[in-house]
Amino acid sequence: MTRPKAILFDLGGTLVEYYKASEFHAILDDVLLDIQQMLFEKLAITFEEVTIGKRAEEENRESGDNKVRPLETRLATIFQLGDLAKEHAFMMGLCKRFLKPILAKSHVFDDTMPVLSELKDLGYQLAIVSNTPWGSPGILWREELGRIGIARFVNPIVLDRDAGWRKPAGQIFQHAMNIMRVEAKECLYVGDDPRWDIAGPRAVGMDAVLIDRSGTYTHKGIQCIKTLHELVDLVKNT
Question: d(Cα 145, Cα 231) in Å, to the nearest integer?
C-alpha cells in the first residue's frame, strides 16, 4: 500500500452503527406500518396488510447492475400513491418517516471523531462514499451527518443517490474522485463489508482496508484493522 493523499470512508458499520443486517426486516415492518397508519389517518387511504407486505418484499432488493432504486419510487410502488408521488414535499415527508427509526438508533463509534480529527490535522483529504438504506435521499443523510458532527471533517459526502450507483459499482468511487480531483492510486478506502468496500474500490485501482470490529473475517489478501486508531498507525507507516 502506498501513502494515500485521500482517505474515503464507508458510513454505516464503519463510522457509525445504525442497525445490524439481521435487524432490518423488523425495522422495515415497523416503519411501513407507521406510514400505512399515517396515510389512513391523514388521507383516509386504506390498504390490505398482506398486499403491502408482498409489495415490500418485492421492493426489498437492489438492481443487479447496482443502479440506485430511489426510496421515493419504492414507497410509491408499495403504497400505490399515484399522483401523490409527484408531490415533492409529501414524498420527502414519507422518506423522513422511513428513516426516523434508523437514525434514532445511531451510535457514533468511540474512535470515529478522534481519528477523523487526527487524520484531518495530518493533512489528508477525507470523504464519505456510502450506500444508503433503500436509496434514501442524500439531503436527509447530510442533515444526519451534520447533526452527529461528522460532516465537519469530510468533504465531499458522496452517497449512492448522488452518483446514481451503489457500491460496489465503480461509478460511485469515480464520482467521488472527480469531485476531489484525485486519482485512484492516491486514495485509500475504508469500510466494513468485503463485498462492497474491498472489491469495489480495488476494481477502480484504489487500495482498500477492511475494518473488522468484531474480528469475524478471515479473508486472505485483505488488509484488516479492528479499530480506526489502527488506521492512523497504518497510514503513518506507509
Answer: 21
Query: What span, in angstroms and rounded, lies between the C-alpha atoms of 97 and 31?
Result: 7
Q: What is the pLDDT of residues 153-211, one digit of tens each?
A: 999 999 999 999 999 999 999 999 999 999 999 999 999 999 999 999 999 999 999 99
Q: Is the dihedral of CA 170, 172, 178, 183 positive or negative?
A: negative
Written as nine digits, the cell of 124 is: 489528508
Assess contact for 99 and 136: CB atoms under 8 A.
yes
For 219, counting Cβ atoms within 10 Å of its Cβ (0-12 exposed, 13-18 middle, 19+ buried), the class is exposed
Provide the grid cell at 22: 439481521
CA 14/CA 109 separation, integer angstroms: 8
Place of cell 454505516: 12
Q: ∠ CA 94-98-99 to the nearest 5 degrees? A: 120
Nearest CA-CA partner of 15 in 122, 170, 144: 144
* pLDDT tens column, 74-101: 999 999 999 999 999 999 999 999 999 9
Listed residue (25, 30, 41, 146) closest to 98, CA to CA: 30
pLDDT for res 219: 73
DSSP H helices in the chain: 24-43, 49-59, 71-78, 88-104, 112-121, 138-148, 160-163, 170-180, 194-197, 199-203, 228-236
Q: Considering the entire predicted model, what is its pTM?
A: 0.94
